[in-house]
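Q: Can someone sanity-check these two? First one:
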Amino acid sequence: PHPATAPAAPYRPFPIVSFNHMSKEVLDYELSRDFYCGVLGFIEIPRPAFENEGVWLYGFGLSLHLIKSRYPEKRLLLKGRRIEHFEEALPNVDHMAFITSNLNEVEKQLREHNVFYKRFGSHKTNIHQIFLFDPDGNVIEISNCAPPVGETTCPRVVGMGGPASPQSRL
């Protein structure tokens, strides 16, 4: 059988010690850097002198590598398809997610930066989310909480304007 469909071997921990970084292919790494730094609050960090152009950013415990596309025409087509699909399929799409202590302030700042977003919320789960696009059509979620491990709801509505509870910072 194909390796992806082969029966799973008995559970054995994989020898990974930590998460290192997330990488995004972008059309214009300077525009994307300005978005991630100027809107979301990342900072630029030193990057080795690789052959391809790009920048490394850091924020909120995440290293984010933005790499200039070698195939901008294909990337532009992909961006259009992603935005069209995501417009219809939010919030069930590929995305990276952050937790905020103040979702209302996030929404206010996104409006100030003229960033398009959609807001979703459920009083049943106490989870409220904002989804937005970066300049390349990559989806970002900013949520008021994350359920504690093993749970499916947040203990209370947090982050609508006040501090987040310790359980929501997973």
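And here is the second, same format, sequence then tokens:
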Amino acid sequence: MTFWQENYHFIKDVYDMRHQKMLEWMENVEKAISRIMADKVYTSAEFKRERDNFHALCKDLYREEVKKWLQQMLEILMAERAKEERKEQISKLDGLIERHENLVPNVNQTQIKVDLYW
């Protein structure tokens, strides 16, 4: 048995955890954008708190290394798996990457608006 076969479940758990963390991060960014762009009048302190939260979430916006790592691990993990399982996992990862790529322009526009509002 190879290293990957012997440790499949552990590596799969790490992969799933990183996949889930990226998904949660994107959801948090979307929530931060909705709070900033809400039709609410913020006090200076409230807006500063929202702005700081948004900027903290967006500091690692591009996350190319995470996407690359997820793709590489998925290729390794699915090398000897059934075709259906491979397709399912690849489509989940493609959906995650597509969602991230669609999120980037929205975040960039929001960053500009936040700076203008501040």
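A (reply): Looked at the second one. Helices lie at 3-6, 8-36, 44-58, 64-77, 83-117. Residues 83-117 form the longest helix (35 residues).
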